[in-house]
Automatic annotation (TrEMBL):
Pfam families: AIPR. InterPro entries: AIPR_C. It comes from the Bacteria. Residues 264-557 form the Abortive phage infection protein C-terminal domain. This is AIPR protein. The lineage of its organism: Bacteria, Pseudomonadati, Bacteroidota, Cytophagia, Cytophagales.
Length: 605
């Protein structure tokens, strides 16, 4: 690659996400492009969804010319039927987007490479593929088939977006653009999509996306109709007023004039689409008389900013979040081209504070109007503050960082690499895999898991150590996968490794989570995980357990697709049974049965 700026970005990206120094430049560029594009159009992917960058990548042998694939359902990336079902049940509808990415380090857009890429996408949607496909593509095809069986819940057919990235400059070359148009027309003729977009991304475009992702947002607006509020403890300054819709768009649009979804991280509701309330907002905007009354009909927008520079009526707002008003923002944005909004004013509260407790209180207070999903307020509970303090108690070289709120640690990179940050979703998946013996449940949406484990997880009297050690184990497994010690084939069993490591190190039984004995149990696990050689020895044993379980499972379920293992309780049972045959590293002599031992005994019988 000749582009020095992109080379610098790649170096930064490799360190941030702990990719091995020996990774080839073209492979790293694929991961980089996948991350940039998905972060721009779906910013929660690597935070709330606990999605790993490498899980996007399908490149390599038999990839059909595609480097990255994401299937997004109701604003969440999905990887299992169970996740789709959970998201479907929440909103009683499915909004689906298929995202395909091809990345080339070459400095030109080649019609031949483009044709290969789009042919691979067309083949993906065939009933029977004409190309040889790898396991990743096969698994995604099965997911696609399941989605289309649920088409009755789709208000519109899925959207399909094709991103073709190179390090060159896009000049709208007729040969390349014409080839893309011709290939896409054939894809459109299958009537599977409401919209198909071909998006070429050149060096300047991918540089711009990465800078937008990494930099804190700063926007300037003319907020002339405002009133400052009296001094409030914990708040630097605050204002209430009305803002023209045309001025508000300056806050929420990115450089491509699309809605900037990163601004809504702290909003406890996703955009809910065209439900009855949002339809009413839209009808108000379309009625000229009602549109003038919008400021008195609408609850308004609450903006929390970390800093503010004010010159006259011009406000430069930096590092801000829209904590309430996600629905209004999206409806306004979606109608900006079809409705004249010049006479539309929006009620605005602008609060400047960097006190996280104050921010949490604002989020709670401004989001009580309608039912909110359980995961929305979970991270605001006191136990998560306690857990965060426990994480912080470990020495810097070994410690992880618990991120209660998305992007909480973004301002301290590179001191804290992204791979050492544990999100709420990652913490849930880690602990239920390691201590509840349910790695097969981790492909459910994390909000659904919170609901299922309500009253069992994040309890005030729980010893935080077993949460930390499960997260550390997940971090170690992720690192060994990324560095190639655990082969890519075993990536789908990532959470099974957590269960196996616990059993192989300390045995199947474990003390109660509120007892003093759980500290000793976790210290034993922690001691192994801090030693690279010993961890790898345990991983080797765990891999053998998985291989043996696959063999047994194949004999029992001859027609079962191998990609379904991770979602099957009986496969988890077989894995644990293999581990229990191996003497643990530490004989801690815990005789008391756990609930999960009784559960497994019932399954066996």
């Amino acid at each position: 690659m000749d582009n020095k700026i992109l080379q610098g970005y790649l170096s930064n990206f490799r360190i941030d996400f702990d990719f091995d120094k020996g990774i080839k430049e073209d492979q790293l560029f694929e991961h980089f492009c996948n991350y940039c594009i998905l972060s721009k159009i779906h910013p929660e992917a690597f935070y709330n969804d606990n999605f790993k960058i490498e899980e996007l990548n399908v490149g390599g042998g038999n990839d059909t010319g595609i480097d990255g694939v994401a299937i997004v359902v109701n604003e969440h990336i999905v990887s299992s039927n169970e996740e789709i079902d959970a998201l479907k049940n929440q909103l009683q509808r499915l909004d689906v987007k298929f995202i395909f990415i091809q990345s080339k380090t070459s400095s030109e857009f080649k019609a031949s490479d483009l044709a290969t890429f789009i042919f691979g996408v067309k083949d993906f949607f065939k009933d029977t593929p004409s190309l040889k496909i790898n396991d990743d593509i096969k698994s995604l095809r099965e997911l696609k088939e399941y989605i289309y069986t649920q088409s009755i819940l789709m208000e519109d057919s899925p959207i399909c977006e094709l991103y073709y990235v190179t390090t060159g400059r896009w000049t709208n070359d007729q040969n390349v653009a014409g080839r893309a148009s011709s290939e896409i027309k054939e894809l459109e003729s299958r009537n599977l999509f409401s919209n198909i977009k071909f998006i070429p991304v050149d060096a300047e475009g991918i540089e711009k996306i990465y800078k937008e992702i990494k930099n804190k947002v700063t926007k300037e607006i003319n907020f002339d109709k405002n009133t400052p509020l009296p001094r409030i403890e914990g708040v630097k300054e605050s204002y209430i007023g009305i803002l023209p819709a045309t001025e508000y768009f300056k806050l929420i649009e990115d450089s491509d004039h699309k809605i900037q979804k990163t601004l809504f991280y702290d909003n406890v509701r996703d955009f809910l689409g065209v439900n009855s309330v949002n339809k009413e907002i839209e009808l108000t905007l379309k009625d000229k008389l009602k549109q003038l009354k919008f400021p008195i009909f609408n609850n308004g927008i609450t903006i929390v900013s970390k800093s503010l520079n004010k010159v006259g009526t011009y406000f430069k707002v930096k590092d801000f979040q829209i904590v309430n008003g996600c629905q209004t923002s999206h409806i306004l944005f979606n109608n900006k081209k079809s409705i004249d909004l010049d006479n539309t004013f929006i009620p605005i509260k602008l609060i400047v504070t960097d006190d996280q407790d104050v921010i949490n209180d604002i989020i709670k207070a401004t989001n009580r109007q309608t039912e909110v999903k359980i995961e929305a307020f979970e991270s605001l509970k006191d136990y998560h503050k306690k857990l965060q303090r426990f994480y912080d108690s470990f020495p810097k070289d070994d410690k992880l960082y618990y991120e209660r709120r998305p992007r909480e640690y973004d301002t301290v990179f590179p001191e804290i690499p992204r791979n050492k940050i544990i999100s709420l979703a990652a913490q849930i998946n880690a602990v239920i895999s390691m201590f509840w013996n349910e790695p097969h449940s981790t492909h459910r949406y994390y909000g659904e898991l919170l609901k299922s484990y309500s009253g069992k997880i994040f309890l005030e009297d729980h010893n935080p150590y077993f949460y930390y050690v499960s997260a550390l184990c997940l971090h170690k497994v992720d690192t060994l996968i990324k560095h190639g010690f655990i082969r890519a084939h075993y990536r789908r069993y990532k959470y099974h490794f957590l269960t196996l490591i616990r059993v192989l190190v300390c045995g199947f039984n474990y003390p109660k989570f509120i007892s003093n004995d759980i500290t000793q149990y976790c210290e034993s696990l922690h001691a192994i995980l801090l030693k690279d050689k010993e961890t790898k020895e345990i991983i080797t044993k765990a891999t053998n357990c998985i291989d043996k379980a696959i063999e047994i499972f194949n004999n029992k379920h001859e027609n079962r697709n191998q990609n379904d293992y991770r979602r099957l309780k009986d496969f988890t049972f077989e894995v644990i049974e293999q581990a229990k045959k191996i003497p643990p590293v530490f004989n801690l002599n815990i005789k008391k049965k756990t609930k999960h031992k009784r559960y497994l005994e019932r399954r066996k019988n």
